[in-house]
Amino acid sequence: MDNNFEDRSSIESLIDYAQILWRWAWLLILVALIAGGAAYYISNLQPRVYQSSTRAVVNVSTGSEYYDAYAAAYGAQRLATTYAQTMITPSLLETVSERLGYKVTADITATPIVESPIFTVTVMDDDPNMAAEIANMVVLTFSEKIIADQSERYSELKLGLEDEISRIDTILTDINERLALLQIKETELAEAEARAAQMEKLGLTPIEVVRDPNDYVTRAQLELSQSQYQTTRSSLFFTLQQIKLTEVQTATTISQIEPAIPDLKPIQPQPLKSAGIAAVVALMFTAGIVFLIAYLQDEIRDPDEFSRKWGVPVVGVITHFNTNEDRLITMSKPRMPVSEAFRSVRTNLQFSGINTPLKTILITSASPSEGKSSIVANIATVFAQSENNVVVVDGDMRRPTLHKIFKLSNRLGLSDYFIRTPEEMSGVVKQTKVNNLSIITSGSLPPNPSELLGSARMKDVLTLLTEHFDMVLLDSPPLLAVTDALILAKNVDGVLLVVDPKKTKRGAIRQAIEQLRRLDARLLGVVLNNIKVKRSSYYYNRDYYYSKQYGRSSDETSRVDAAASDTSAG
User: Most buried of 7, 98, 434, 560 (most Cβ within 10 A)?
Assistant: First the structure.
């Protein structure tokens, strides 16, 4: 049963929220319209912003038939992400500005496409043509920069090799020149030796030819050096050619897939979108304020709401009356609408006891100061006025009130009966000014009221009272304050819960009902007390009907009430 109650409460809470929104729908719609209209107007005042985009792809060349295609593709994806994150730099924008001939102040972003070697360059500017022009120039400039950076990466190495080859070429030239001189010298010596041999054949004194033995050593050294330097040069030249080939084969390039074109439709402002967002935000904010107000108020507004929310019937609605002047209004002013409301409570309770007789009824409340004792006194009075022999028991032995309402002494009461014999009960039961209505006041305030109310002697009291009276009504402390009411609830035929919507919060009502249901107490219903009447309300219409039914003016009604009061008192 508790789970069903909680489920029903959750559903009813949603219904409550929906009703709150419906009740304040006019305000929500008004605020949304104002906020949306203001946002639309302000948005239209903002400068127009146009957007143009272009896409570029990163190409990675391996230059080999044995390359890993997956590695190349993955490398291109990584490069696309890196380029998109690093390409928009001040130096790049400066170069773009120089090439375009004007200062680039547009908003430029580069975004990689996930798991793709493609990235997007987006430009936002107040001129659609300039936005497209800047986007295209950014890609072109960055592509050229990538090529230049790659060339610069190899240029130092190539320059070093070329310088070394040039140095070797100089050395080889020098070696060749020296070898040429030695060759000339060798030729001259050979010619001199030939002439000397000819003169010797002719009998002439030959010319003496002297060879330098060091020339042979020098020539050999020069030829060895020449061979070594030529080998080194060939190796360096081959390396240079390989580097140039690698530079070409492994070059990374950027190709523009689709050029940016001017888009004449501005992306900002978007008046309709701004108006929609503003309306939604204002609606949510206002709804939050409405819910906050409803939460702070947290009041029960009508009987239907109470019955629907907690599944407990409302057996009576008591409008506000001045309890300071007359708390027993059903005796002093029996023809007043509020007195008729108490008689309606009596009738509803009588119908509740058709199948299961009601002899003992506990009347309590969730919280203090809800008018519970006044309700008890007046319900007892209307029962007594219908020729029922009624006794009221003040079970609130902490803050007793009933003796004040009936203007009786509290010297002897319920607490005193616990130390008396059943024969002495007559001294405890007191007759009130209302015919057929007796009362047992609380008596002396004991230190342990809960123990007394839960004792077997208390059950004997109730049994004895039901034997002598037609109806036994018990007043008790509030449910949520102490356990006294729950203890008494187990020993009565039914429980009536008094609720003051202006004072009792929904959480307290829920907790009180849950406690009674866990106890399997018979909850007869709820009496809504201290309802202030408004001209447009259900309560006003009811009271107006009663006053018209009796057909009397205010003065006449007062006279009748006074006469009825005297009759009752007599």
Answer: 434
569 in a structural domain? no
Provide CB contacts within 8 A for 6, sequence distance 6+.
Answer: none
Task: Name the β-bridge partners of 124.
Answer: 51, 107
Same domain for 490 and 452: yes
Q: How far apart are CA 442 and CA 402, in angstroms?
A: 8
Q: How many domains does the chain have?
A: 3
Residue 64 and residue 249 in contact, taking contact as beta carbons nearer than 8 Å = yes
Say how far residue 49 (Cα) sits from the centre of its chain. 32
Measured CA to CA, the distance from residue 463 to residue 451 in angstroms comes to 18
Q: Which residue has the tokens 């992306």?
A: 267
Answer for the pair 345, 316: CB distance below 8 angstroms, yes or no.
yes
Query: Could you read off the pLDDT of 492-505 as tens digits, one per residue?
Result: 999 998 888 777 77
Residue 108 shares a structural domain with residue 11 = no
**Residue 49 per-residue DSSP state:** B
186 burial via Cβ count (<10 Å: 0-12, 13-18, 19+): middle
Global confidence as pTM = 0.51
Other CB atoms within a 10 A radius of the CB of residue 202 amount to 8
C-alpha to C-alpha distance for 496 and 361, rounded to whole angstroms: 7
Q: What are phi and psi of 256, to 5 degrees?
A: -80, 120
Judge whether 414 and 397 are in contact, CB under 8 Å: yes
- The single-letter code of the amino acid at 280 is V
Q: Which residues contact 232 (CB under 8 A, 6 or more apart)?
A: 168
- The domain containing residue 11 runs over which residues? 2-46+269-297
Question: What is the rounded distance in angstroms from the CA atom of residue 120 to the CA atom of residue 108?
Answer: 10
Q: Return the top range by mean pLDDT from 103-112, 287-296, 298-307, 343-352.
A: 103-112
Is 320 contained in some domain?
yes
Instruction: State yes or no: pLDDT of 546 exceeds 70.
Output: no
Comparing C-alpha atoms, which of 524, 443, 442 is closest to residue 476? 442
Question: What 3-state class would DSSP assign to 487?
Answer: helix
Is the confidence at residue 271, as pLDDT, over 70?
yes
Same domain, 359 and 254: no
CATH of the domain at 469: 3.40.50.300
